[in-house]
Amino acid sequence: MVVLxxxxxxxxxxxxxxxxxxxxxxxxxxxxxxxxxxxxHTQLSAHTYYEVKSALEWIPYDRLYDIKYIEEDDEFGKVYxxxxxxxxxxxxxxxxxxxxxxxxxxxVILKILNNPASISFEFIYKTAVPYxxxxxxxxxxxxxxxxxLNYKCKKCNKVCNSMHFQQTFIDxxxxxxxxxxxxxxxxxxxxxxxxxxALEWIPYDRLYDVKYITKNDEFGKVYxxxxxxxxxxxxxxxxxxxxxxxxxxxVILKNLNNPAIVTSKYIDKV
Length: 270
Ligand SMILES: [Zn+2]
Ligand SMILES: [Zn+2]
Prior knowledge:
The chain is an alpha+beta fold. The chain has six helices and 13 strands. The strands form four sheets. A six-stranded mixed β-sheet has the order 1-7-8-6-3-2, with helices on one face. Strands 9-10-13 form a three-stranded antiparallel β-sheet, with no helix packed on it. Helix 5 runs antiparallel to helix 6 (about 175-190).
């Protein structure tokens, strides 16, 4: 019997993160050889702090919760959103002999690897490119393997503000398709690095002290209100939510022309 001593990396000449991943290979399996090989490959390539962030993991399905159907995708079929209890790998903690993680409960997207029988190393490799992939999981009921990932913005090449907005499209609706589309467009196209350029859907009950101010030729009645939440400032990875500023700020409300549509859209304070 050969006793393998995974103590020193041939490349780094010390016990680097690649070795630490390797030591753990015996403690998990996806149940699929190609998937195991693929995940292992990404882990063996992770010699440095920065490379660890590109390593994939086997993510047991029960580490995901609040799994919601989002949309049908031409390539992948059904796409889901979930929260990931553990959050992504950050760095090795020598004291605890375990990985430190960040962004606990983060939003992730689940995409089905279509045909488990045809999953090959090359296929997963190619499929993973446009996304920030954290790992692979398996739905115990359908037996579907799913990539656990986030959309990487094509423009910014990372999970930018626009991608954070996109993650929450299923959480709100104005009740009007055109308005939804309009708000979503501002979130997807204008807010990559400046969240202040995005509009959002503001439920009317987040406004208070609504007072009539004046009549306007274009919009009809104009109101003033206070906005409990205040405007978007920046994404907070820790809370997996937006940080806001200017809580209870004054805002002006103008009717969108079609009286069927009540605006509660954010219009900057003049
Ligand atoms: Zn190494
Ligand atoms: Zn972007």
